[in-house]
């Protein structure tokens, strides 16, 4: 009984229950179409860029910050790859490394203003979203290909039709059934979990979120740590941009432009406090998958239009936030496990 009580106090356990309920409800509504492993994996793959960035934004929000510029860095990363490869003549992998470096510098610039200049994270990252979107448009203007078409034709297939090279990152399959993007996502979950929950760096992030002054007095270079979280988010956005470009075979400056709200929603649903000091990588990953399955199951099983999918996501956000508060207070456990009446 004590173990059950402890489980209900864990937000990750509540998220796991919600994920199972999604499969039960959607599976019962339309088992023939919904319960297809290939279709489920494909739906997750289509949402994977948001899932990946949400992992790294978790670091930022635990420190008490916020990052709404990541979606702009996706487009910037994509167009840097396309222009440097197509018009600059660089090797595709050199272009990828160049894009990652540029994204890291974008994160470092915003992180510097936040950590060392004391500017509000919302203001800096809002400005950053416009700045990096503008840079993406500027770079796209250097290409011979019209911006609206996107740069395509990346090295892709062998004579047998198998995806190789750069396109393998977005379209390849491992072990005959696992999309490469999902494998990369699993690896990133493990790496981020170890970094946040099992290292001194992770403990510093949590302490800064709880009490930045105490962290500073204890000898932690809080400004450097805060700046590093924005660099990590920039790198995460670069990874998402690379995978998205590889998947759709098109480099555009506006790729990922609509991802911001979905990213923040996934992090908040995962249990990260907007005020900082609390959060988990597993929680963010589970919340991302919950949103992904919701967006996949509603149109397929209940005919909900894709334009109306934000409404149920907003409803579930409110329900989950309220449920999280109840779970942490122990009221959810007492609701499901009422005390026995004494005679």
Structural overview:
The chain has 343 residues and is an all-alpha fold. The protein has one domain: Orthogonal Bundle (ABC transporter involved in vitamin B12 uptake, BtuC). Helices cover 71% and strands 1% of the residues. The protein has a two-stranded antiparallel sheet. A hairpin with a 3-residue loop joins strand 1 and strand 2. Helix 4 runs parallel beside helix 9, helix 5 runs antiparallel to helix 6 and helix 6 packs antiparallel against helix 12. The longest helix is centred in the last third of the chain and has 27 residues. The chain is globular. It starts with a helix and ends in a 7-residue tail after the last helix. The mean pLDDT is 87.
The proportion of residues forming helix, as a percent range, comes to over 70%
Main pleated-sheet profile = 2 strands, antiparallel
Strand order of the largest sheet: 1-2
CATH class: Mainly Alpha
Overall pLDDT confidence? 87
Query: What is the structural class?
Result: mainly alpha
Number of domains: 1
The radius of gyration over CA amounts to 21 Å
Number of strands: 2
What low-confidence regions span 5 or more consecutive residues with pLDDT below 50?
A: none
- Beta content: under 5%
User: Which overall shape is indicated by the principal axes computed on the Cα atoms?
Assistant: globular
CATH fold group? ABC transporter involved in vitamin B12 uptake, BtuC
- The arrangement of helices and strands along the chain is HHHHHHHHEEHHHHHHHH
Assign the CATH architecture: Orthogonal Bundle
Ends distance: 21 Å
How many distinct helices? 16
């Amino acid at each position: 009984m004590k173990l059950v009580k402890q489980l209900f106090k864990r937000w990750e356990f509540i998220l796991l229950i919600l994920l199972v309920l999604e499969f039960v409800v959607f599976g019962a509504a339309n088992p023939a179409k919904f319960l297809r492993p290939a279709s489920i994996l494909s739906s997750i793959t289509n949402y994977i860029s948001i899932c990946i960035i949400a992992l790294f934004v978790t670091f930022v929000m635990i420190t008490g910050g916020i990052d709404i510029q990541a979606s702009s860095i996706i487009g910037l990363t994509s167009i840097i790859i396309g222009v440097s490869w197509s018009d600059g003549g660089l090797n595709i992998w050199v272009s990828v490394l160049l894009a990652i470096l540029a994204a890291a510098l974008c994160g470092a610039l915003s992180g510097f203003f936040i950590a060392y200049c004391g500017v509000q994270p919302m203001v800096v990252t809002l400005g950053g979203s416009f700045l990096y979107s503008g840079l993406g448009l500027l770079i796209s203007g250097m290409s011979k290909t019209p911006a609206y078409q996107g740069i395509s034709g990346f090295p892709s297939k062998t004579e047998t039709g198998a995806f190789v090279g750069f396109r393998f990152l977005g379209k390849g399959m491992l072990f005959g059934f696992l999309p490469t993007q999902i494998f990369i996502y699993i690896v990133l979950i493990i790496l981020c979990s170890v970094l946040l929950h099992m290292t001194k760096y992770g403990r510093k992030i949590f302490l800064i979120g709880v009490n930045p002054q105490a962290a500073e007095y204890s000898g932690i270079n809080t400004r450097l740590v805060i700046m590093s979280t924005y660099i990590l988010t920039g790198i995460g956005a670069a990874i998402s941009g690379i995978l998205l470009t590889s998947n759709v075979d098109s480099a555009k400056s506006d790729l990922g432009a609509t991802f911001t709200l979905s990213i923040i929603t996934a992090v908040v649903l995962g249990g990260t406090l907007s005020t900082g000091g609390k959060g988990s990588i597993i929680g963010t990953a589970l919340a991302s998958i919950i949103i992904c399955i919701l967006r996949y199951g509603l149109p397929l099983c209940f005919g909900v239009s894709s334009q109306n999918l934000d409404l149920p996501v907003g409803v579930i956000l409110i329900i989950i936030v309220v449920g999280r508060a109840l779970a942490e207070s122990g009221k959810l456990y007492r609701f499901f496990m009422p005390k026995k009446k004494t005679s």
